[in-house]
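Appendix C reproduces, verbatim, an entry submitted by the partner laboratory led by Prof. M.T., so that reviewers can inspect both the input and the predicted structure.
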Amino acid sequence: LKIKGTCNHHQHAGVGTAMPDSLHEFRVRKLKEMGANAYRCSHYAATPALLDACDRLGMLVMAENRLAGSSPLFLDDFRAMIVRDRNHPSIFLWSIGNEEHTIQWSIAGERIGRTLVRTARQLDPTRKVTAAMHDRGLGEGFANVVDVHGWNYIHVGDIEAFHRRRPEQPIIGSEEGSTVCTRGEYTDDPARGYVSAYDRRHPKWGSTAAEWWRFFADRRWIAGGFVWTGFDYFGEPIPYKWPCIASHFGLMDMCGFPKDLYWYFKAWWSERPVLHLFPHWTWPGREGREIDVRCFTNHDEVELRVNGRALGRKRVERNSHVGWMVQYEPGAIEAIGYRKGKPVERRRIETTGAPVRLQLTADRSSLRGDGEDTVSIAVCALDHRGRVVPTADNFVEFGIEGPGRLLGVGNGDPSDHSPDKATRRKLFNGHAAAIVQAGDRPGPIRVIARAAGLRSERITVPVARAPARFLK
């Protein structure tokens, strides 16, 4: 089994770190749909609700310690995590810590690491132990005591030299990639804090998605890896600073809306056919200028057509993508995926009109009336032909009727300073979301979305009576 994982912080749009249990399941499902089979808890003990979701849905977990140390306080925290979580079948690795720069390569660090590894084995002899390391050297510090060597970033240190020296020691990419991109943006815009979605930019320690995954996929002696990150999160707005307030690392934004790069991993991590064509095809004022059109796909070949004209068929290199430079003209672009010489799938993107109405979509069909259960309601703007308008930025007002409440709102914009605890949010590149929480009684919850000049929309989510959780 090759590990195809994501690192994740404990945050979500609308609620921040105060995530209801059901949102953990929502996020794990989104990762599973992408083809991920593993989740790294970065960099602290996870809530039991997350581990429960991973147990139920079949997601492996690398459970990570917050701080590596051998003082009574640090050891007590490490012991508490293992004792609490060791009966979760999803956990396959314990990590003693992440990027402990001051100790991970030192003699003192080796002693601390030995104490932590011994503690883990005493409490749970059934699982292996790792540490997530920036590797500047060979055979130093933590590397001498862990079972599995956790490698953070293939360009930091020499992973192949390490393998030649220690061919018997398993290696896993505990943190890789760090590609930065913003959902629905196709040029860098430092003034607004947006990064192009074309998998081009990364910090000096990172790499593009295609670069790191091809490297890992081609080497059987690497167990797989975890991309940084599955979802965006507040803070670390690399490559920008204030007023950008959220990261760009995620394969999904903070609402769980996929970025284009999500589909790269879905193409190469999933067994299902994938044909993702991007960008959108609504570029008023850019007529005659070249647009970089790409496909993330696992088909053998892809043909591109622009307004019916064929621009050629291209062979798809494994773990890569295909692309064309196309002069923009309004209309439609269409990708045709071929397998064994036969067309098997098509994707068509059309130039849209102005938004005329809203559309609501719930990620679940019903809720439990326990006062905690939640549903994510996605909202987008449609034109007169029912097409999602990718540039829509209308303000949407949410209303709730029935046994529930609006918990928060978000839109995935890394530079939006609007409060998440609110009843309105601006669409960001066509999309926003609301988190709705059930009350403690059954009945229908009606969610109403309104925007000036657009036809409003409503959706109903039934709330069922919840079984009693405690004996009276």
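Residues 136 and 157 are 5 Å apart (CA to CA). Additional entries are available on request from the coordinating office.
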